[in-house]
Write a structure and sequence with these properties.
The chain is built from four helices and no strands. The longest helix has 15 residues, at 43-57. The chain is 58% helix and 0% strand. With 74 residues, it is mostly helical. The model has no long low-confidence stretch (mean pLDDT 94). Pfam families: QSregVF_b. This is Cytoplasmic protein. InterPro entries: QSregVF_b.
Length: 74
């Protein structure tokens, strides 16, 4: 896991679906779980959703807190 990918979770938005426009980092756990069961999209989007699923599933969302704070300060 690299910090660049973690930072992308805070900037990339969901391009479609019920949560269109919401940052990947802010997608709810049940939606991430749905992707895990049904299959992640291909490409960068799928990789980011899969990463966010792993963070959520393993109760590691707090790893994004320092990055969120840095974004607010910038």
């Amino acid at each position: 896991m690299n910090s660049e990918k973690l930072a992308l979770l805070l900037t990339r938005e969901m391009p479609y679906g019920k949560y269109k426009g919401r940052k990947i980092a802010d997608l709810p756990g049940h939606y991430l779980g749905w992707f895990a069961r049904e299959g992640f999209p291909s490409g960068e989007l799928g990789g980011l959703i899969a990463l966010m699923y792993e963070l959520d599933h393993n109760n590691l969302r707090m790893l994004l807190d320092p990055l969120r704070q840095a974004q607010r300060s910038a």
